[in-house]
Amino acid sequence: MPPASPVLPVHIVWDWNGTLLDDLDHMVDAVSACQEAIGEPPVDAATYRRQHCLPGRAFHDRLCGRPVTDAEWPTITRTFAEHMAARHPPLRAGAAALLGSVARRKHTQSLLSLTDDPQLRREVEQTGLTNVFERIDGRHEPGTAKSTALEQHLRTLGSHDRRRVVLIGDTRDDARAARACGVRAVLHSGGFEPAAQLRTAGAPVVHSLDAAVRLAIERSPRPPQPGLLDDKVDQHR
Questions:
Q1: Residues 6+ apart with CB under 8 A from 145
Q2: pLDDT confidence band for 159 (50 / 70 / 90)
Q3: Cα 14–19–24 angle (5° rounding)?
Q4: Sign of the C-alpha dihedral, residues 192, 197, 203, 206?
Q5: What is the reported pTM?
Q6: Is 210 exposed, middle or buried (0-12, 13-18, 19+ CB in 10 A)?
Q7: Cα separation, 185 vs 172, whole angstroms
């Protein structure tokens, strides 16, 4: 059997919260504090994962069982920002080594998150990963959709063939954003949404970051094999 043809380099767009960060507990604590600040009960991890959706205001609507009021929303956003600013980002075990391995294999990587951009950059610097990424983009405007952010991220990167771009994330919203922008997605089940929900998004679902990277690379387009092309040309002479 002839050896498999080499894959072309891929570009991986990484999600941050729930993907490279193992921060579900942090998020549950922050969201619980937000709920309590408006007189609602706290949430547990199972409820967080089951009810999770974007944008954040719709998430709190679900948790409250009613629409959050315009008077309550600033309290929620302020409380959440305070919790995020005080935390030390918990990088998922093995993530740093995996990112280094991807870079050594000559694939490229960038980071896209709906975390506010200054906060995201502080957290990435704290983890020592700033130089791993070709580009880092957080949210610049409140309410920005992941699909809008991804499109701008890809346009700014500019040089990557979207057939070889893969978004690795942990939510159905990541899959929707990738589909809207014409790139592939692989979803990691250890983040903010359970596997059963992720499978409804129409993207592959895996249980580790290592598996996500393997799938992203294995399903990359392969360069044409000259011998096969020559055979096709000969058949049409």
A1: 54, 55, 177
A2: confident
A3: 150
A4: positive
A5: 0.89
A6: middle
A7: 10
